[in-house]
Amino acid sequence: MMNKRRWLLSLLPILLGLIGVGVWGSQQLGQGAQQVTPKTIKVQQAASKIKSATKKQTTTKPKVKPGQLTEAQAIKQIDQLIKSHHIMGTLLLTTNGPAGVRVRTYGYADDANQVRNTATEAYPLASLQKAVTGVMVQKLINQGKLSLTTKLSHFYPEIPYANQITIRELLDHRSGIRMTEITPKTILPTETARLNFTLQHLRSTNNHAYAYSNANFTLLAGVIRKVTHKSYQAALTNDIIRPLGLKHTYEYNDIPGNVINPTSYRLANGFGQSGIISKPLQSSELGCGSLYMSVGDYYKFMYGLQSGQLVGEAGLKSLADNFQIKYSAGVYYQAGQLIRVGGNDNNFHSYYMGSRNAKVALVLFENQGVFGGDNQVAYKIRDILLKTVPF
């Protein structure tokens, strides 16, 4: 019996040792399982931080790179240019399409009564209207009612060489039509009277070299009337004003009484002298200079054209004659994916310049300035905007 007890006592340490090892092992295994979970949590936290950082990057304004300008720096330079050239008018700027539009005003619409120019007032478009007429023509082409090769003789057979003049040539001032700017003795009261005035005074030469003439676009306005069986103004409303939601676009003789109608000032030796606006002349410019618009409305139009909204991508390519570097349908297509449009009438000057996609653009409507000199000012403003970060 004693031997049996001794044997059991000798086994007891061994058993206790084995139990201890088992407990220690289970503790170690438990600790290993617990270590996995914190690592998983850390990975999830890191992923959530990455997502958060990505969201912040999308809303962060682009950094200004060497050689670029901030919005404030750009506007300061532009304001100095305008001031140094004694320009009065309204200027629209953007470096980011419609989202980045800024409008600045300078000087007076009526200096004698101290009425300042405003952001929404309408100015004479002058030749900037030619691009509008071009879009109306392209819409008819898109609808299959007209083509770029349609001959003028289909509408005006009485014009000499009309059977050798195409719609494309009228759009590009290569029709052989010539007409100096003649001011009627009185206002031409109807669109028919305006067309007849042009038909009576134009010359058809059969020389199809480029020669700028308002008569080309008045004839296109006549074509629009004949194809649509509507007035030019009614077609304009249906094709452009209503679809784009334009709020400040008027015919020269239909400007509401509560809308600021600016006076033009001729700049001489740094001083402005008020000029007389010839309503008879404006009445004769159907399709090429009879409209008034705000800078905002004209930008909406140009963005609608260049984005394809108005005539589609194929229609734009057709109208722009494959974007060759030349004048096409009211717009000068330039190297470097740039465009320009300019107008000058009754001492009012109008300019549109920018990138072909209209993301970078300026619209400058002046009621005081010098057309040739301020054309260079507009180029300088464009160059400033091209090196400015999107705003």
UniProtKB/TrEMBL annotation:
The keyword Signal does not apply. One of its GO terms (molecular function) is serine-type D-Ala-D-Ala carboxypeptidase activity. Its EC number is 3.4.16.4. It is an enzyme of class 3 (hydrolase). InterPro entries: AmpC-like (IPR050491), Beta-lactam-related (IPR001466), Beta-lactam/transpept-like (IPR012338). Residues 77-374 form the Beta-lactamase-related domain. It comes from the Bacteria. Pfam families: Beta-lactamase. Keywords: Carboxypeptidase, Hydrolase, Protease. This is Serine-type D-Ala-D-Ala carboxypeptidase.
